[in-house]
Amino acid sequence: MTRTPRVAVYARHSTSFQNPESSDDQVRACNPMVEPLGGKVAAVFTDPEISGYRRDRPGLLSMLRRVEAGEFDIVACEALDRIARDGEDVAWLGKKLRFERVALHTITEGEICDMKLAVASMMGALFLTNLRRKTLRGMESAILGGRMAGGRVYGYRRSTTSMGPNGPIPGRIEIDPDTAPIVRRILTDFSKGRSAYKIASDLNHEGVAGPSGGKWNQSTIRGDPKKLVGILHNPLYRGTLIWGRREWRRNPDSFKRERRYRLRDRSEWTVNDVPDLRIINEALAAAVDGEVARRRSPGRSGNAKGGSRGKHLLSGLIKCGSCGSNYVINGKDYYRCAGNREGRCDNRPSIRKSVIEDAALSVLQERLLTLEMAELFASEFAREVDRLRDAGSADAQRLKERVVVLEAEIDNLAQNFAKGVVSDTLAGMLTEREMERRTLLDRINLSEVAKFADVLPHPVLLERYTERIAKAREALSDPNSRVEAAQTLRSLLTSVTIHPSDGGAIAEVVGDPGKIIDFSQNSETASGTNSPGSSIAVVAGVGFEPTTFRL
Predict the structure, then answer these.
(1) pLDDT per residue as tens digits for the range 113-139
(2) What are the chain's domains?
(3) Which is nearest to 483 in space by CA: 496, 468, 472, 467?
(4) At 37, is the secondary structure helix, strand, or coil?
(5) How does pLDDT run across 363-382, given as a tens digit for each residue?
């Protein structure tokens, strides 16, 4: 008996400026296509307000996981640009579906074959390239015309006098009489020696709204002189409009396609003098620059000192339960909420460094891994191993055959490179195949590990964990081993959160279950790498409850 094809319907729209029902409309448009295919809709996946350039779309990833599990025979969508925009992504998704023996159909293009994939890849790449080129050309033209090409800048407002045929001219700004004096005040106070922390705290206590409408913080004021950002370094306050300081690029190896940038050489910047937008005079600008240079000079105390900060056991792990800010070293021996220090958080308690470190270490040693937790882990581990063994036996051979094909293709591409045949297309093909090969090898490795995976009996696991924690804690007092021991212990913790409570504070400690079990089972405890055992532990989904204690 022939099985009815199971159809997954996918829909996506890019931004909130589009019709919020656009994705639902796409799903409805796909439904009439399913019947002629002789199929039945098994699931619907949507990614509203997410760019098609990103691979980490929740709906797409959920659909692909179920495709890998063999739950669908057909994927249907309105058009190929709904499922991917980037040419490399279109090809990657097409090959992935073909490998899983899943057909791809769209309303616009019908059944997708290799030729249609190639055309869609080329058209997608051209679309993105032309869109980027036109956008940058328009932004540069705006700067040369004395207009803003980006978002709002504190101290300015949209011009109320510059009008075009269709209303206010886009990007035309003027000095804001309400916020420009705040800019002058900040720069004047800084030039007289006041710290960014103190300036932010004063503004918050006076109820002065920050650039985003919320509280001020020191980083908004201090910024970065190399990037020319922050109140202290914004060239617009000095009457100069600059664009193109940074070149933004998207990382092709990231599912999130996170943006990275490089600082361009000054010769590549677009610079335009706009004296009518100057907020501070040359004397104040020079005084600010002099104070910045003075604070950066070696020999000064505080954060501007030429040397680097010392490392603390819990640096970067402690968060405020009220505002989410980091707890930072305040003075010599205390942690304090950075938001409270800047006057934007009511979580006032300062915590002595030795107290919070000893408490966190005690929790690690006595409360994060108990006999009940070890029993739970052992049970879940065994269940997950059984599942992986069952799934792996049927899938491993097919994956290995695909790896052999990929390795042959990678070798051929590498030979082309060695002969000098180099192009963006070939480089993209090589990256795509290497990524697929790594993914498949990880799946094969996991199934192989599952065949022999075992976990220590939970009493032994607990005993070994307690013993190793005690040794690592002792090593903290030895200057020769303190750094390595601190790194090991830090890796076992996910976060430490401080909550205010009845005039005091309560700390919540969360551990990383995979690393805790790995630490207990393996002799290599500070390498930062996951063993096969810890990988399966994470997959098993065992979570440890947060531990709380009063400080």
Answers:
(1) 877 777 766 666 666 666 667 766 776
(2) 6-128 (3.40.50.1390), 170-296 (3.90.1750), 371-550 (no CATH)
(3) 472
(4) helix
(5) 777 766 666 666 666 666 66
